[in-house]
Amino acid sequence: MSELVTNAVKARDAVIPLVGVRFALADGRLRLEVQDASAEQPVVNRQVEEDEECGRGLMLVDVLADGWGVERHVIGKTVWVEIAVEEGELGRR
Q1: φ, ψ for residue 77, nearest 5 deg
Q2: Pick from 10, 3, 68, 67: which is nearest to 37 by CA?
Q3: Which of 19, 37, 64, 66 fits as disulfide partner to 76, beta carbons 3.0 to 4.6 Å?
Q4: What are phi and psi of 73, to 5 degrees?
Q5: Against a cut of 0.85, is the pTM above it?
């Protein structure tokens, strides 16, 4: 979630500085959504140097999540991530 929010804050539009967050848990899946007003699309950077301080976040999301994607809107986009969770797992975290 922190990676998606950080990207949304960095990409937010100066005229409409909107960043929204939504969580949904259903059918053993946790869905995280972050909305911003920017048309800039997230890109997985697979060529990050060892000493670079940023650029790995979406690569980690891509590896750790069961799925993720982008829904475009008239203004901005929503980046979503889905993670499978077992019953009771959220209570232990």
Answers
A1: -155, 165
A2: 10
A3: 37
A4: -125, 170
A5: no
CA-to-CA distance for 64 and 74, rounded, in angstroms? 29
**Candidate CATH numbers 3.30.565.10, 3.30.10.20, 3.40.1190.20, 3.90.550.10; the one for domain 2-92:** 3.30.565.10
Distances (CA, A) of 14 to 2, 6, 17, 38, 80: 21, 16, 6, 9, 22
Choose between 38 and 48: higher pLDDT.
38
CA 12 to chain centre: 14
pLDDT per residue as tens digits for the range 6-39? 888 887 766 777 899 999 999 999 999 999 988 8
